[in-house]
């Protein structure tokens, strides 16, 4: 098996101050708190200020990590920002973040696999460190989804929010965090969840081209509850482990009903699942680090815990990782 040499050594997160509750949404579209909670489990989400962008959220998440773990990032040699809502088409959020942090000798790039962004980012960062190309890598999931949400569409605007989470990975042969992984992509289903940019055609079909989230909620739901349980099994098989070896399951926080269904199909207890959607909604690449950090702050996640992370969504893409939590 691929022997990792990378360890997660710190975590941090940040969410904007402004809250958008279900009651607030009742004033924008025809919906109600009961419907939203019953179908999604979401009660509120955060929204960035007009002058607050994805790089600002990412910066605050890294500052939070540095302060809590007394870490310097001056010698970071690679920054990966996982996002689908960059400040600009170019430069990348990662380069903007590098400048804000004043890091001098580092590579920086953005990675966009939507809601599986953070697990893809960790997958890449582990590979870079284990191969010897990098020694200290920042992986940040940061999104301002409020900027691409259509607040006249009640089927999507109830779901999305803004936030950021960051982890630091360092070279460590003795106590690596990464045990096994599995990634996949089914681009044929791309039109189930997309935000158009330069084209009004996808896979030979015309699509709604309004620069906002467009979704076939039922199709995404069905895809996720069949793909994720299979993927979870594959990740664990790749480690010669079973679900009973998992202390915490951290799926992408899209919808609580979806998480319940994934747990039921996998015969995994919901009580051992961490999710951030109740107060933050679906923050795409930020949900997994937000959920993990919430678990750390609440004293649930402890050193030595084995954690199964599973990101899934737009693409349609998915990525799972089985990790050992060995943060100092
Ligand atoms: C979006 C989602 C909550 C909608 O729930 P659903 O049960 O599939 O609902 P449907 O879209 O089939 O719509 C059912 C009815 O509710 C209505 N409805 C949709 N959104 C509503 C809202 N916010 N409030 C009240 N009614 C709503 C629909 O108009 C429809 O009414 P109709 O039967 O009169 O036409 C659900 O499909 C979902 O969560 N899917 C996954 C989405 C997701 O997580 N995406 C990100 C993945 S990374």
UniProtKB/TrEMBL annotation:
Pathway: Lipid metabolism; fatty acid biosynthesis
GO MF annotation list: 3-oxoacyl-[acyl-carrier-protein] synthase activity; beta-ketoacyl-acyl-carrier-protein synthase III activity
Entry text on domains: The last Arg residue of the ACP-binding site is essential for the weak association between ACP/AcpP and FabH.
Residues of the Beta-ketoacyl-[acyl-carrier-protein] synthase III C-terminal domain: 236-325
Renumbered residue ranges of the record's region ACP-binding: 253-257
UniProt subunit comment: Homodimer.
One Pfam family recorded for the sequence: ACP_syn_III
Record function comment: Catalyzes the condensation reaction of fatty acid synthesis by the addition to an acyl acceptor of two carbons from malonyl-ACP. Catalyzes the first condensation reaction which initiates fatty acid synthesis and may therefore play a role in governing the total rate of fatty acid production. Possesses both acetoacetyl-ACP synthase and acetyl transacylase activities. Its substrate specificity determines the biosynthesis of branched-chain and/or straight-chain of fatty acids.
Protein family per UniProt: Belongs to the thiolase-like superfamily. FabH family.
CDD domains documented for this protein: KAS_III
Residue span(s) of domain Beta-ketoacyl-[acyl-carrier-protein] synthase III N-terminal: 109-187
Gene3D superfamilies listed in its UniProt record: 3.40.47.10
Positions in coiled-coil regions: none
A biological process from GO: secondary metabolite biosynthetic process
Keywords tagged on the record: Acyltransferase, Cytoplasm, Fatty acid biosynthesis, Fatty acid metabolism, Lipid biosynthesis, Lipid metabolism, Multifunctional enzyme, Transferase
Stated name of the protein: Beta-ketoacyl-[acyl-carrier-protein] synthase III
Enzyme Commission code(s) on record: 2.3.1.180
Compartment(s) where it occurs, according to its Swiss-Prot or TrEMBL record: Cytoplasm
InterPro entries recorded: ACP_syn_III_C, ACP_syn_III_N, FabH, Thiolase-like
Catalytic activity: 2-methylpropanoyl-CoA + malonyl-[ACP] + H(+) = 4-methyl-3-oxopentanoyl-[ACP] + CO2 + CoA; 3-methylbutanoyl-CoA + malonyl-[ACP] + H(+) = 5-methyl-3-oxohexanoyl-[ACP] + CO2 + CoA; (2S)-2-methylbutanoyl-CoA + malonyl-[ACP] + H(+) = (4S)-4-methyl-3-oxohexanoyl-[ACP] + CO2 + CoA; malonyl-[ACP] + acetyl-CoA + H(+) = 3-oxobutanoyl-[ACP] + CO2 + CoA
Gene: fabH
Active site: 115, 252, 282
Any one cellular-component term (Gene Ontology): cytoplasm
Organism: Viridibacillus arvi
């Amino acid at each position: 098996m691929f022997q990792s040499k990378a360890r997660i050594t710190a975590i941090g997160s940040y969410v904007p101050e402004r809250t958008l509750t279900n009651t607030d949404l009742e004033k924008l579209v025809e919906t109600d708190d009961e419907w939203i909670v019953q179908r999604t489990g979401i009660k509120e989400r955060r929204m960035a200020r007009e002058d607050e962008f994805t790089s600002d959220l990412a910066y605050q998440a890294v500052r939070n990590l540095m302060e809590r773990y007394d870490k310097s990032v001056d010698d970071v040699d690679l920054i990966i920002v996982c996002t689908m809502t960059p400040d600009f088409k170019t430069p990348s959020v990662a380069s903007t973040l590098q400048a804000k942090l004043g890091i001098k000798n580092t590579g920086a790039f953005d990675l966009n696999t939507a809601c599986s962004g953070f697990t893809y980012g960790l997958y890449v960062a582990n590979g870079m460190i284990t191969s010897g190309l990098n020694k200290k890598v920042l992986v940040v999931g940061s999104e301002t989804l409020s900027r691409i949400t259509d607040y006249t569409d009640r089927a999507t605007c109830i779901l999305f929010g803004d936030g950021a989470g960051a982890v630091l990975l360092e070279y460590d042969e003795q106590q690596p965090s990464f045990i096994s992984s599995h990634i996949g992509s089914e681009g044929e289903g791309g039109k189930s969840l997309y935000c158009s940019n330069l084209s009004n055609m996808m896979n030979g079909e015309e699509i709604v081209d309004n620069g906002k989230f467009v979704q076939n909620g039922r199709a995404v739901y069905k895809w996720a509850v069949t793909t994720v349980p299979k993927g979870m099994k594959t990740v664990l098989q790749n480690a010669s482990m079973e679900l009973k070896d998992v202390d915490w399951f951290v799926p992408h926080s899209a919808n609580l009903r979806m998480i319940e269904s994934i747990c039921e199909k996998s015969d995994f207890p919901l009580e051992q699942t961490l999710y951030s959607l109740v107060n933050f909604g679906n923050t795409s690449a930020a949900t997994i680090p937000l959920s993990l950090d919430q678990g750390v702050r609440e004293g649930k996640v402890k050193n030595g815990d084995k954690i199964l992370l599973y990101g899934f969504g737009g693409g349609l893409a998915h990525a799972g990782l089985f990790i050992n939590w060995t943060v100092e």
